[in-house]
Structure formats: C-alpha cells, structure tokens
Amino acid sequence: MAFETIIVDVEDHVALIKLNRPDALNALNAQLVGELCTALEEADANDKVRCIILTGSDKAFAAGADIKEMSTKSFVEVYGENLFAMVNDRIIAIRKPIIAAVSGYALGGGCELAMLCDFIIASDTAKFGQPEINLGVIAGIGGTQRLTRFVGKSKSMDMNLTGRFMNAEEAERAGLVSRVVPAKKLLEEATSAAQKIAEKSSLTTAAAKEAVNRSYELTLNEGILFERRVFHSMFATEDQKEGMAAFLEKRQAQFRDK
Ligand code: CAA
Q1: How far apart (Å, rounded) are the C-alpha atoms in residues 254 and 251?
Q2: Which Pfam families does its entry note (predicted)?
C-alpha cells in the first residue's frame, strides 16, 4: 500500500517505519495513525520482517496528537468514535518486537506512541513530555497509565500536572528509555539492536514479548506461572534443541522458527 505520511523500508529482516509529516512535527492525525497501524500490521504479517523500528525526524519523533484536527471536536464525536482506542489496540496486538528510536520531541501522543513500542532507544536530543494539561485536556493514549508504570507515580504526576519535558538523560535515569546514544548514531544503534533480535528464533522473541507484557496485567505469582508455562512450551520447538545443541557444540545457532 502507498503511504503519504510515513515511509517504510524493509532491509535485512528489519522494517524501518519513519513518521513523515515534517511540517507538523509528525503530529498524529487520523491519516498518519491509520497508515502507521496498517504498516505495522503488514510488517507483522511479512515473513521477511523479524523486528520493527519506529522513528521520526531529528527534530521530532512526534509532537503529539494533531491539535488542529482535534480542536473543534465535541464530546459526542470523540466518545462516539472512541478517539485513540484504535491506535492503542492495533499497536498492542503486534506480535513482533518494535523498537522506538526517538530523537527530538516525543510529546503527548508522541510519548505515548513511543511507550506503545517494546523499548525506547533515545538520542541525546530527545525530549519526552505529557503537555496535554496545557491544552485543557489530559493524556489519552496511556500517558497517565503507562508512564506511571515506567517512571513511578511522583515523576508521572510531575509530568502530567506541570506538562514539563524530560530530557534523554532524565528519561534513562527514570527507566523510560533503555539507552541514550548520540543523535548521529540513533538509527545505527537501533538497527544493530533490531538485527540482534532478528537473529533469534521469532518464536522466542514473540514469546518473550508476550511474557514481559503479561507482567503489566498479572499478579507476580500468576505472571511467573505464565512465564514458566511458556518456558516449558519452548521445549516443543526445534529451535530449543538447536539453540542448546549449538551452545554445547560451541557454534552459532541456526534458528528456523520451528
Ligand atoms: N498538532 C498539530 N500541529 C502541531 C503539533 C501538534 N501536536 N505540534 C506542532 N505542530 C505544528 C505547529 O502548529 C507548527 O505548524 P505551523 O508552522 O503551520 O504553525 C509546526 O508544527 C512547527 O511547530 P512550532 O512552530 O510550534 O515549533 P517549535 O519548535 O516552536 O515548538 C513544540 C515545538 C514545543 C513541540 C511545539 O510545537 C508544541 O508545543 N507542540 C505541541 C505539543 C503538544 O501539546 N502535544 C500534545 C498534543 S495533545 C495529545 O497528544 C493528546 C493525547 O494524549 C492523545
């Protein structure tokens, strides 16, 4: 499918999806959100893709939901269309790992989109924030929920109530991002992480993603039971035999997703 607000490139088993509305700092309008979800679903269904990177421009990963598009909507409209339910639900249904490579602004829906990915690699120029409070609303795609789980109540309240931005260093310290790299190295580092993931069995990367995500939904004991059962189920795969044999034979494993 031809896209107008994103650019998709598949190379060496990695799908790179770049948000591309530079004039609006990649603000998430309905078209971009629809195209992004379609591209993610296509990458999820594409056998050649084993990991996905989502990125923006140097200046902005995304500056939030499109304020122009939203500004005149009524309660009846946003409630009626269940605004932003679709983007949340379609992205959490993606089974392949998604890395957010964030440079510049990741604000409001942009920060929430980064948090919908499986982990965030940030450039040293990244700025995260939930400034919806300045617009007379609150976050609508997880900014009060996921951010709180990432950084804890105090910092989440600070971000959501004052609307201030966190720089990359603070975001790493707080546990929002997994690593910070110089801006020029952002895509190189994200691609290298994606390629490491792409080398694994896709059965195990999907299982690991599913198990980590369950930790948000389950009690500790239920989560550990879920993990153990999935761990047990891996012993039904050829890739488990291959992975352990390769270790014992001191060679590189050749996974076949079986
Ligand atoms: N929606 C629509 N357009 C946006 C936008 C947004 N969220 N953010 C930036 N733009 C547009 C600006 O309107 C401007 O367009 P024009 O040139 O046509 O005027 C262009 O992008 C460049 O922006 P600025 O001139 O403002 O650039 P700057 O460098 O001076 O400032 C910024 C950058 C601090 C990110 C500033 O643009 C800004 O504060 N943006 C809004 C951030 C925000 O409030 N995000 C939350 C949105 S609500 C939300 O996301 C709800 C939710 O949870 C789902």
Answers
A1: 9
A2: ECH_1
Query: How far is residue 71 CA from its own chain's centroid?
Result: 26
Look at residues 199, 85, 100 and name the one whose alpha carbon lies nearest to residue 150. 100
**Looking at residue 127, what is its pLDDT?**
98
CA distance linking residue 19 with residue 196, whole number of Å: 23
ipTM of the complex: 0.98
Which residue has the least CA distance to atom 53 on ligand 1? 139
Task: Tell me the C-alpha to C-alpha distance, in Å, between residue 83 and each of 40, 166, 190.
Answer: 19, 26, 30
Residue 102 forms beta bridges with which residues? 122
Asked whether residue 192 carries a pLDDT value surpassing 80, the answer given is yes
Q: In the structure encoding, which two tokens stand for residue 252, read together? A: 């590189």
Structure tokens at 145: 């929920």
SS3 86: helix
Of 117, 106, 148, the closest CA to residue 36 belongs to 117
What whole-number distance in Å separates Cα of residue 82 and Cα of residue 117?
21
- Domains, the chain, in order of start with CATH, read 6-198 (3.90.226.10), 200-248 (1.10.12.10)
Claim: this prediction has a pTM higher than 0.90: yes
pLDDT value at residue 46? 97
Q: Is 66 in the pocket of ligand 1 (CB under 6 A)?
A: yes
Residues 6+ apart with CB under 8 A from 149: 216
Evaluate: CB of 142 within 6 angstroms of ligand 1: no
Interatomic CA distance for residues 135 and 73, integer angstroms: 14
Percentage of the chain beyond pLDDT 70 is 100
